[in-house]
Amino acid sequence: MGVEKIESLNKSPSKKGEYLFWTIFIIILLILIYLPIHYSKNFWENLLSVNKLNPSYSKVVLIFQIVCYTLVILIIIFRKNIYRYKKEILLLSISALLCLLLIELGSRYYVCNIASSNVQSNILFYSEFNDCHLKSRYSTHPYLNDYGTPNFSTSDDVDMHNSLGFRGPEIDIPKPDERYRIVILGGSSAYESGVESWKDDFARQLQKYLRQLYNNENIEVINGALPGYTSYEDLINLEFRVLDLEPDMIIPYESVNDVHARFVESSSFTGDNTGFRKQWSSPKIPIIIRPMFIRLIIGNPIGIGHFINAPTYKIKDTDEENLATLEQNPPIYFKRNVENMIALSKYRNVSVLLSTWAYTNDFNDSSSKIYYEKGFQENNEVVKTVGIENDVLVYDHELEMPKDKIYWDDGRHVNEKGADIKGRLFAEYIYKNDLLNINKS
Fold it and tell me: The whole model's pTM is what?
């Protein structure tokens, strides 16, 4: 009996080890089965607020699913060999995990300390900017949802916000005597997301050309725009922030984001824009894209829209469905908001220059979709109508702005060359119509 007890005691650790091995084995199999089911196309379509993933993301999802299911099949087929060489496999797995850890640490160091500001903006989650001792371009605001982070600057100091959160240098308040101040309102196409440096944006180019034409260094143009803003935010921004700058003129330059705002169910298309906007809230970050090296490979699908766009905003599958949505949700609120900006400005003795919105369809991106082009055209017609009805001049920029790719970063945003032409065209229109009410040279 004594010998049997000793033998059973000697066998029990190996039995426990075997149970532990197969428990871990089953858990790994379940994880590999669960991951492709959970992170399916539907998951990413809901996360990105689209009905259909673009081909590049679809391929990544398909490859991920194939890899996971292939691993499941191989693990089941070679389970006995895996058990036989469990120590070696364990050491190999630990080595692989350590390699991934080193890759992740290296990726984080690279993004935080070496990468360009564009890479940092495109890769980092909002919460990670502080971890890298950087500032995000956006901060929360009680009435606007978000606004430009005061004193923001990129790691290379190429781009910056002033202490008020506007892109560009500090603004003198109160406004100096003899200063003629123009403020541009709008979203990313007015902020100029396609232009890396604030010194090259639309506001600075317009200022440069106006000073040349009028031979007057007291003309100042302020970039009061922010990526993501619609005419709703423009109106609030004008009321609570821009009027305090004592502008002599405002130039609202808006369209695409107001077209976005119409892609909601008709029951959600309301005057307060709650069908498109929600209160700022941080989205849930999928575990699978939390590693930095993963985002360096596939990009970061989490953008500003995930913090501020309502779940009822969604692009549908077909052109016909999206055209029908635009038909159901006409640009009535865009018209109202532009009219209210004019009314408020006139009451405050601020002149207004309206403009049509330019784009190019040469990139085969969303701007070339038939339903977006329809939305752009409708908004441009609204601007023209509002101008006539309110005795406000409208510069038909869409008609004059070149569509060649060399001037554009994508279908909606110009690059440095495009911003220069844009500034010159606006300046020539203003000068030709003598809108600044100051002495010409």
Answer: 0.84
